[in-house]
């Protein structure tokens, strides 16, 4: 028999796009990160035989954790969160230092739940018209954190729509005992609230094993917050365990995170470290927006126990005169808000 005829190789099929992603260096707060760009092509033929080609380009920013970053505190997985790790094992003196004095809100997960003229800026209303936001803890009894004592908190900011400095009273207290693994970093924040209506939660947060008792009837709004990053005299990162129907993240639930700094305009190093803390905790820094701190509420806030123990809520009609008196005594009755550039 004659030699076999070699088979003719078939031509390889041409692969369709998407192309191999291109990785480009970039810059977000000078943090080690990459931008991955991928293209995909789609061809469609119309009835008259003409061909239309469309190319879509998708870019994704990936911020990477730096091997140089170190933190003083350990983190661990707490049952309150899915995929987020929080700090543990702060001693009572460290907790008291962390939850005292004034912080400026540098970055936050955007949220706004009702477009009501009565809405107040603060932790649960960080999008426009909020700016110049501060969180201030009382400095009463600074020796050590007492797990059984609630402390006064003032959440204040400037509302660009109304031109008002809005103040929302809150109390913060521990929800676990001192011997609980996360007793030092999980807290209840009871506030007057930021809206006339109740915010809808996606799922009811389980409060098993927690001690949750509002100090009085006017503090109807309860959120559970945890420390996910902290550096003394530098920054405090809080993550809320409650998950709400946030219109900014309608496709997937996203935890609300707050980056508070001691400096009104934090250094680049501080912002870099905040991003690294967020990554370590398992949170995507791209979810945060920068909060405008260009102008400052210049008058220092002075805590008055009687004001916090008052039964007049900012939402009750009888409280308007009480509240305006408070603002007048704190800020002067000038028609312009006391902001300085």
Summarize the structure.
The chain has helices at 92-98, 268-281, 305-309, 320-331; strands at residues 22-25, 33-45, 51-63, 74-77, 85-88, 101-108, 130-137, 151-159, 164-174, 186-191, 221-231, 235-240, 257-261, 289-290, 296-297, 339-340. With 341 residues, it is mainly beta.
Annotation keywords:
341 residues; mainly beta; eight-stranded antiparallel β-barrel; 11% helix; globular; disordered C terminus
Give me the secondary-structure topology:
Elements lengths: L21 E4 L7 E13 L5 E13 L10 E4 L7 E4 L3 H7 L2 E8 L21 E8 L13 E9 L4 E11 L11 E6 L29 E11 L3 E6 L16 E5 L6 H14 L7 E2 L5 E2 L7 H5 L10 H12 L7 E2 L1
Describe this structure in words.
The chain has 341 residues and is mainly β. The chain folds into two domains: 22-44 and 51-63, no CATH class; 74-310, Beta Barrel (Lipocalin), CATH 2.40.128.20. Helix content is 11%, strand content 32%. It has helices at residues 92-98, 268-281, 305-309, 320-331, and strands spanning 22-25, 33-45, 51-63, 74-77, 85-88, 101-108, 130-137, 151-159, 164-174, 186-191, 221-231, 235-240, 257-261, 289-290, 296-297, 339-340. The protein has an eight-stranded antiparallel beta barrel. The chain has a three-stranded antiparallel beta sheet with strand order 1-2-3, with no helix packed on it. Residues 9-35 and 317-341 have low confidence and may be disordered.
The description of the largest β-sheet is: 8 strands, antiparallel, barrel
Q: So what's the oligomer here?
A: single chain
Give the integer mean of the pLDDT values.
Answer: 83
Q: Portion of residues in helices?
A: 10-25%
Assign the structural class, choosing from mainly alpha, mainly beta, alpha/beta, alpha+beta, or little secondary structure.
mainly beta
- Structural Rg: 26 Å
How would you sum up the global shape? globular
Content of β-strand? 25-35%
| Structure summary, number of beta strands | 16
Low-confidence parts? 9-35, 317-341
Q: State the distance separating the first and last CA atoms.
A: 97 Å
- Within the CATH hierarchy, at the fold level, what is the topology of the largest domain? Lipocalin
The helix count comes to 4
Order of helices and strands: EEEEEHEEEEEEEEHEEHHE
CATH top level assignment of the largest domain: Mainly Beta
InterPro entries: Calycin (IPR012674)
